[in-house]
Amino acid sequence: AVQLVESGGGSVQPGGSLTLSCAASGFTFETYRMYWLRQAPGKGLEWVADVSSSNAFKYYADSVKGRFTITKFNDRNTLLLQMNSLKIEDSGVYYCATDREGTTRGQGTRVTVSS
What we know:
Number of strands: 10
Helix content: under 10%
Oligomer: single chain
């Protein structure tokens, strides 16, 4: 069965950095485009970034472009999201997923940005 396990969340001050990790198993990771999604309190799932199966092509929401970097390591079945210059509005639960709608996603890792 597909398993996605996120880690690396935490509490940081505005301007800080965090790197989220997603360990994938149960499917052929190297053939999948992968996604990071987030959900702020009281809001729906929001697409943050995605990366092509080979890690060659990366796409970002305008709200995170230039601050976040998505990386896919096919040799380790791992997806990363490096987040810099964090803002309060980046707070939420972050999920890695195999589809943009988040139909198949992990349990999430919480990011709290506050002063």
